[in-house]
Every structure is written in structure tokens, then in C-alpha cells.
């Protein structure tokens, strides 16, 4: 890489655009004092990003702009542009941009704002600094030594001197990477704390949701168990009712037919007997028969009332269960109406079996709705009133049984008496009596069968109510009870006969278990299960995302720690190696400048106090104390010299000229070890005598083989080493102008 040119426009005394080309290894810039030639060196500092206005002899950015004169108006901005040749060498460019020519420009405006441009594109100062650091052009300005600043390397602190040497050794790029890695590590630590805080905030809510999900899972398991037992109960009940209805129907058919036939025969016999003369015994017998019928009729009425009361008691029990439910009656009504409407629409489907089944379901839903209404009305009677009424009817039924027994005994006695009194010619009366007796027996049988029929009807109504309630609880799954395959405890199939032969108490136990499970399901509750599960899933995913984010951050932090350690090791190795090389060159240049003596750099450690601000977690016994003093060890560079034939051992004992020579020796040593692309020396030779000037010139020639040199000088010897000479003059308008001059002219101009 080679410095090609610099262009100034409106910068300080260069009001007009001025361009200097550097086609030679050594370029000298000469001119009388006050002509503005030192502004060339300051323009280099400016374009390379110098932020200290003091180092450029100004107080603010506006001082860098041509301020005008009587002949030339002031400028609105100042700009300086550096142009480098950047050819690829061995497949690599010194400046890591894919351009053969790189132009770096800085512009300052009157309002103090700055712009940085790279090949015409706006960039950040940081981008410029990192790019130049790759070519050993650092921010410390070790490659730009202005008049009076050569002594800076000697007068700086040990720590500042180390930074200058690190810059001179080309370690700036590694330092940038280390600082950037530490910044990223700090940001990563902050992000880790934020992520950990988010997880801590999320944890209680996640625990709560996990508890809710557990309740939902328990509820779902209980609901599944309930569905299984509910469907088994419904299947067993439907089988029992179907078989029992068939059996009762069969038992009822034959006696009913016989009873109807006897009724007709009795009527015929009575008609025949009415034509004969009645006697007292016959009339009494007819009266007893009427009493028997009255007692039987009353008994049947009482049996029906008892059945109804038992139904009311059962309904009251079911209403009690229903009232525990969280489902409002209006919602049940709406559900029943919706199901009823849907099923009625399904009746339009083809297929007689589907139609028959759906018709049955419609009736079941309607009966369920009626049952709710009836149960609600029946609930108006308290269980105590119903029990009292039941006991009264049971007592009356017992009295009727006794009365029936008495009348039967009286009838048998009268019949015996009549038979004793009548002769064999009264065959018609005996037949009538026999028919009446048989009909009485049949009436008793039919009454018992009717009671069984009524009981089955009530149980069927209760089954419909259960089916409707199962539908409200389980939905369409409740209709699957018909497909349930019943099995015993051994897992063997159960027949319909087994279901009917089983004691009814076992089925009642199943019903009670189902009711208890309903109550427990209601007590567990689950709220809006779907919403809770969705929120739980989202929260779990959020927590898992944060956990993965934390793992990634921890991995990133570990990687950054490793990078920092590697950079630290690289810096230490290169710094130690660089110090050794600089010491070799420093001692050689020192001996050359002083004709002997010794000079070397030594790494030293300094312990410096550092104020640490107390945070909230520190000991607060003394609230007025806001900080405390701690110590930090820092490494720096000290310079040890020994002049020949003198007892001078320290820098503070050197004269001004000796300090200048020592500074030059160190600066040249640094430049020899890690040559910068260019080196600017602004009148660093001003204090040299003729002999030292020749030595200085020899060192210039040696350095020129490795770096481009731009020398601002009055020294004839220094001028003689330049390939190009530029002269700077200033007219009455106060504007610096550039002249290309010959060596003899340069000597005259420099004076």
C-alpha cells in the first residue's frame, strides 16, 4: 500500500483546493514560518479522525475551516481527502476493501458536524479507524510527529507510552477486537440477566397454569371414567327395561284375554239368572261381589298413588343432584330444544331404521324436557310431606287387605251355605260363582301386572332423563351406549338374561357411583379448559424459548471469554516480542545519535487507585459514603538511558537537545520494527546541529526504504534527502499556496 495524494479544501489557511502528490519515497515541504506548512501535518491528523481540537491548534471544529480575509470570503466547510493505492499482494490487500484505490475523506461544517466518507460513501469514524488499524495507521498518531511533539513519547506517563508503542507495533486492530469482545460480553451479560429475570417472572404463572392443567387432566380422566361407567349403566338399564317390558307384556296378555272372556260370560250368566227368581242368598252374594270390586278398585288406586309418590321422591332426589350442577335450567332447555330440532330435521333422511331410531331419540328428548318441568313442579312438595302421605297410604292399603280378606271369607262362607241349601239344579249359579271367583283372581293378577307396568313406565321415564343428562354432560358420545359390550368381572360377555337376573340393587349402586362422580367432577372444575391449555402451551413455549435463548447467550459468553483470552495472549506475545525488537533498534539509533551510551524500554507495573461506586447490595452502615477506593495494577513502559562519558541515567536530567535526539531515536526505532505506510515529521530536526543533522539524514534515508516519509523542515541536510520538494507560501490574502521548487529554491524559501 502507498500513500498517493492528499487534497485540502477550505482547511485552515488552504482556502482553495490544494493537492499534494507523493510519488517519491521522501517528500519535503518547506516554507517560511507562518506560511501554513504545518497545517499540512494537521490535515493528516484531521482526516485520520483526530478528535482533540487542541492537538490541531483549535478550540472547536469550526476553527478548522477557512475563516476568510479581505480578498477571499470564508468557507462553509472544510474537507481533507487522503488517497491510497491498495493493490492486492499475495491475494491480500493492506486495506480490507475490494478497491485498488481507497479514498478517505473527512468533512467538517460550520455547525460543528462531521462526515466521514470511504470512496464517496458515508461511514462511521469507527469504520475508518478499524480499516486504518489493519495497515498500522493507529489513533495515537505515532506516525505523525509535529514540531514540539517529538518529546511527547518521553514526557507521557508509563501507561500512555505503552499505548503509543502498542499502536506503533500494529496491535491496535487486536485491541479493537478485544474492546469489542468485552463490549459484546458486557451486553451478553446484560441480556442474560434480562432473560433470567423474564424466566423468574414467568415461573409463578407457569406453576399456576401447570396446576390448572393438572386439574384439567384429572377432570378429563374423571370424565373418561364417568363416560365409561355412565355408558355401561345406560346400556344395562336399556337392556333391563327392554327385556322386562317384553316379559310383562307376555305375562299380561293371557290373563287379560281370560279376564275379558270371563267378564262376558258372567254378564251372560247374570242375564240368565235374572230371569229366575232371586233369593236372599243370591242378593247377598251379589252385594259381597260389589264390595270385592270396590275394595280392589280402591287398592289399585292406592298402589298407583304409592307409585306416584315414590316417583316424586326419586324426582326430588334427582332435582337435588341437578341443582348441584353448574348448568342453568335455561341452558338445559336451550340444549334440549336444539337437540330436538336437529333430530327432527334428521327425520327427513332416508332409511327406516335410522328414522325409527331418531324418532325414539326425539321422544326421549321431549320426555326429558317434560321430566324437568314435572320434576320442578314436584319439587314443590317436601320429602317429609311425601313420606307422611306414603305412610298414610300404606296404612290404608293394609286395612284394605284385611277388608278384602274378610269379604273373601264371607263370600266363601255364603257360597258354602248356598251350595248346601241349593240342590243340584242350581248349576247356573254355581257356574256364575265359579266365574266370578276366577275373575277376582285374575283381577288381582292383572293389578299386580299393572303395577309392574307402571313401575317400568316410571323407570323408563327415569332412563330418558338419565340419557338426556348424559347427553348434556358427554355430548354425542352419550348415544354410543347402545354399542357398549357388557362384560363381567372376569372379562366375559354378559347376556341380556344375566342383566335381568342381576339384583336391581347392583344397578342402583352403579347409578349412585355415577352421581358421585358427577359431583366430584363439578367440584374439581376446570374453567375454560381449552383456553387454559392454550395459555399453558404458549407459556411453556415462551419459557423454553427463553431457556434456549439463555443457553445461546451462555455459549456466546463462553466463546467471547475464549476470544478475549486468545486476544490477550496474542497481544502479550506480540508486545513482548515487539519490545525486544524496538530495544535493539532503539539502542542502535541511540548509539548512532550520541556516539555511544545505552537505551532501552522496560515494562513496569503501576498500582493506581480507582473509585468504585457502591451499589444497593453493599454494606450501608455509612449512607453518606457513595464510593470507596480500590487499587488496580496497570502495565506501562519506562525508558532507561545512559549517555556516554556522563553520569546521566534518567530522562529528567537530559537537556532539550538530548531529549530531542532520544525522542527521534525511539520514534525511528518503532518505525523500523513495524513500519507504518507513511511517516510525517514536522520540524523534528529543528534542534539538531550540523553533525547530528547528517546522522538524522542517514536515518531518514534508512527509514525511506520501508515507509513513505513526508518531512516538513528548514534543515538543508533533510531537504537533500527528498525526491520531491513542495514550497508553501502565503500572500497578502492570507491564503496558503503550493509551489513545486528545486532544491536551491527550497533552501532559499526555507530561510
Characterization of this structure:
There is one protein chain. The protein is α/β, with parallel strands linked by helices. The protein has a domain at 223-524. 60% of the residues lie in helices and 13% in strands. It has 17 helices and 14 strands. The chain has helices at 38-47, 125-133, 152-155, 158-168, 172-274, 280-324, 329-346, 352-378, 383-421, 427-474, 496-501, 504-524, 529-594, 656-673, 690-704, 716-720, 743-750; strands at 2-9, 18-21, 26-30, 77-85, 101-109, 114-118, 121-123, 144-145, 598-613, 627-642, 678-682, 708-712, 724-730, 736-740. It has a six-stranded antiparallel beta sheet. Strands 8-11-12-3-13-14 form a six-stranded mixed beta sheet, with helices on both faces. Strands 9-10 form a two-stranded antiparallel sheet. Helix 6 (280-324) packs parallel to helix 10 (427-474). The protein is rod-shaped and about 185 Å long. The two termini are 35 Å apart. 25% of the residues are buried.
Amino acid at each position: 500500500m502507498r500513500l498517493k495524494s492528499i487534497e485540502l479544501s477550505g482547511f485552515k489557511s488552504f482556502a482553495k483546493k490544494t493537492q499534494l502528490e507523493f510519488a517519491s519515497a521522501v517528500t519535503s515541504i518547506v516554507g517560511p514560518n507562518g506560511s501554513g506548512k504545518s497545517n499540512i501535518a494537521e490535515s493528516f491528523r484531521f482526516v485520520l479522525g483526530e478528535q482533540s481540537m487542541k492537538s490541531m491548534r483549535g478550540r472547536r471544529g469550526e476553527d478548522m475551516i477557512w475563516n476568510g480575509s479581505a480578498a477571499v470570503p470564508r468557507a462553509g466547510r472544510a474537507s481533507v481527502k487522503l488517497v491510497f493505492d491498495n493493490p492486492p499482494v499475495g491475494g491480500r490487500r493492506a486495506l480490507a476493501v475490494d478497491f485498488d484505490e481507497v479514498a478517505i475523506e473527512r468533512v467538517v461544517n460550520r455547525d460543528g458536524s462531521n462526515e466521514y466518507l470511504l470512496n464517496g460513501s458515508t461511514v462511521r469514524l469507527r469504520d475508518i479507524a478499524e480499516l486504518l488499524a489493519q495497515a498500522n495507521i493507529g489513533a495515537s498518531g505515532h506516525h505523525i510527529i509535529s514540531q514540539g511533539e517529538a518529546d511527547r513519547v518521553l514526557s507521557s506517563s508509563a501507561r500512555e507510552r505503552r499505548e503509543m508503542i502498542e499502536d506503533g507495533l500494529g496491535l491496535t486492530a487486536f485491541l479493537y477486537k478485544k474492546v469489542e469482545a468485552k463490549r459484546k460480553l458486557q451486553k451478553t451479560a446484560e441480556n442474560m440477566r434480562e432473560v433470567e429475570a423474564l424466566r423468574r417472572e414467568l415461573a409463578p404463572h407457569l406453576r399456576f397454569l401447570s396446576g390448572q392443567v393438572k386439574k384439567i387432566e384429572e377432570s378429563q380422566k374423571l370424565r373418561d371414567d364417568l363416560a365409561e361407567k355412565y355408558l355401561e349403566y345406560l346400556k344395562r338399564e336399556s337392556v333391563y327395561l327392554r327385556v322386562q317390558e317384553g316379559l310383562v307384556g307376555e305375562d299380561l296378555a293371557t290373563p287379560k284375554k281370560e279376564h275379558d272372556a270371563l267378564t262376558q260370560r258372567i254378564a251372560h250368566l247374570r242375564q240368565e239368572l235374572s230371569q229366575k227368581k232371586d233369593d236372599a242368598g243370591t242378593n247377598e252374594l251379589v252385594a259381597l261381589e260389589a264390595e270385592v270390586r270396590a275394595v280392589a278398585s280402591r287398592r289399585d288406586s292406592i298402589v298407583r298413588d304409592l307409585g306416584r309418590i315414590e316417583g316424586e321422591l326419586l324426582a326430588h332426589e334427582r332435582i337435588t343432584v341437578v341443582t348441584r350442577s353448574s348448568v342453568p335450567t335455561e341452558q338445559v332447555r336451550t340444549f334440549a330444544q336444539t337437540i330436538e330440532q336437529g333430530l327432527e330435521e334428521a327425520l327427513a333422511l332416508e332409511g327406516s331404521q335410522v328414522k325409527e331410531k331418531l324418532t325414539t331419540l326425539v321422544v326421549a328428548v321431549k320426555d326429558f324436557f317434560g321430566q324437568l318441568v314435572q320434576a320442578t313442579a314436584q319439587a314443590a312438595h317436601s320429602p317429609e310431606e311425601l313420606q307422611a302421605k306414603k305412610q298414610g297410604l300404606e296404612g290404608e292399603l293394609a286395612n284394605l287387605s284385611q277388608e278384602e280378606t274378610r269379604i273373601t271369607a264371607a263370600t266363601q262362607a255364603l257360597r258354602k251355605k248356598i251350595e248346601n241349601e241349593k240342590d243340584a239344579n242350581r248349576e247356573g249359579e254355581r257356574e256364575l260363582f265359579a266365574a266370578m271367583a276366577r275373575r277376582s283372581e285374575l283381577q288381582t293378577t292383572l293389578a299386580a301386572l299393572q303395577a309392574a307396568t307402571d313401575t317400568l313406565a316410571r323407570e323408563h321415564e327415569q332412563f330418558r332423563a338419565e340419557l338426556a343428562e348424559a347427553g348434556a354432560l358427554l355430548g354425542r358420545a352419550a348415544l354410543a351406549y347402545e354399542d357398549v359390550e357388557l362384560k363381567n368381572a372376569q372379562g366375559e360377555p354378559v347376556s341380556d338374561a344375566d342383566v335381568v337376573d342381576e339384583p336391581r340393587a347392583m344397578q342402583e349402586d352403579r347409578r349412585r357411583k355415577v352421581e358421585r362422580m358427577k359431583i366430584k367432577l363439578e367440584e374439581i372444575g376446570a374453567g375454560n379448559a381449552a383456553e387454559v391449555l392454550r395459555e399453558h402451551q404458549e407459556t411453556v413455549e415462551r419459557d423454553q424459548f427463553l431457556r434456549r435463548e439463555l443457553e445461546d447467550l451462555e455459549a456466546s459468553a463462553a466463546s467471547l471469554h475464549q476470544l478475549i483470552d486468545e486476544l490477550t495472549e496474542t497481544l502479550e506475545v506480540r508486545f513482548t516480542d515487539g519490545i525486544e525488537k524496538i530495544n535493539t533498534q532503539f539502542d542502535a539509533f541511540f548509539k548512532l545519535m550520541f556516539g555511544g551510551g545505552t537505551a532501552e524500554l522496560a515494562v513496569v507495573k503501576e498500582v493506581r487507585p480507582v473509585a468504585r461506586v457502591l451499589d444497593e447490595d453493599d454494606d450501608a452502615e455509612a449512607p453518606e459514603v457513595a464510593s470507596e477506593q480500590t487499587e488496580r495494577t496497570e502495565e506501562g513502559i519506562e525508558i532507561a538511558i545512559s549517555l556516554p562519558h556522563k553520569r546521566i541515567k534518567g530522562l529528567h536530567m537530559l537537556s532539550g537537545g538530548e531529549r530531542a535526539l532520544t525522542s527521534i531515536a525511539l520514534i525511528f526505532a518503532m518505525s523500523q520494527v513495524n513500519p507504518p505506510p507513511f511517516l510525517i515529521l514536522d520540524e523534528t530536526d529543528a534542534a539538531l546541529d550540523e553533525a547530528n543533522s547528517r546522522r538524522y539524514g542517514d536515518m531518514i534515508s534508512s527509514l525511506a526504504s520501508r515507509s513513505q516519509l513526508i518531512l516538513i523542515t528548514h534543515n538543508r541536510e533533510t531537504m537533500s534527502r527528498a525526491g520531491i520538494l513542495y514550497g508553501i507560501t502565503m500572500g497578502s490574502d492570507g491564503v496558503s499556496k503550493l509551489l513545486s521548487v528545486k532544491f536551491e529554491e527550497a533552501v532559499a524559501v526555507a530561510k
